[in-house]
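Quick one, probably user error.
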């Protein structure tokens, strides 16, 4: 689902501090992610995720991100943090992902790997959308590795977020080049893992909005 969207959705991922969540909302981001993956340097306990959630404005989505967590951990995190959307970034199949009764995004590392849209639809038929990341398949996300444009599946008829190595200086060009439904960023707006930088958050949003304005102007012309 690429095309002339007037507003590229923005997800800031790996938040650990309620103050960062408040600023993200003021900047107009669509979603804030909290990470429960054991391999993440941004991992939070469910109680901390609940504090981030409490700082969110209405209409801003809390995304709970898992990577090969077991069912008990996923259930405990959902019970305490009460996310509205799940993201599975490991080897989870469709049956596991949909088991929790919430919509889900499937995250995939496509570094050096090509996969076609039909395969994604067949393997995760109930996914609300996909997060296409630049890291190697099976590796953890949040790696800062860019996704090669050639590895983005053509004709993906679901919402998809571009992820991997985005920052305030390169996201505008990336949005103009591939017109993703949304963008997802962790490291590019940070001072340190899990500690977001207000200036970088602001500049990131401004860069996406500038690219959107160009696309809207081109559509109207
Ligand atoms: O960010 C993490 O620590 C992480 C760990 C395990 C799975 C996914 C993870 N993050 C996802 O990767 C993208 C891109 O990160 P970055 O911008 O390259 O640092 C991030 O937005 C999450 O969706």
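Nope, works fine. Designed sequence:
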């Amino acid at each position: 689902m690429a095309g002339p969207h007037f507003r590229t959705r923005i997800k800031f991922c790996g938040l650990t501090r309620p103050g960062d969540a408040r600023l993200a909302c003021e900047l107009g981001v669509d979603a804030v992610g909290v990470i429960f993956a054991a391999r993440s340097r941004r991992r939070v306990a469910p109680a901390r995720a609940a504090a981030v959630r409490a700082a969110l404005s209405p209409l801003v989505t809390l995304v709970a991100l898992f990577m090969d967590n077991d069912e008990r951990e996923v259930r405990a995190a959902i019970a305490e943090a009460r996310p509205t959307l799940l993201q599975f970034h490991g080897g989870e199949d469709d049956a596991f992902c949909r088991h929790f009764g919430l919509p889900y995004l499937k995250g995939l590392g496509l570094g050096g790997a090509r996969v076609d849209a039909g395969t994604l639809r067949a393997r995760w038929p109930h996914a609300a959308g996909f997060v296409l990341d630049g890291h190697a398949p099976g590796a953890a996300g949040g790696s800062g590795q860019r996704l090669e444009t050639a590895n983005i599946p053509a004709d993906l008829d679901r919402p998809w977020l571009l992820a991997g190595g985005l920052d305030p200086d390169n996201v505008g060009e990336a949005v103009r080049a591939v017109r993703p439904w949304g963008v997802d960023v962790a490291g590019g707006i940070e001072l340190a893992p899990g500690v977001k930088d207000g200036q970088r958050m602001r500049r990131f949003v401004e860069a996406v909005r500038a690219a959107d304005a160009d696309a809207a102007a081109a559509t109207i012309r």
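The chain has a mean pLDDT of 94.
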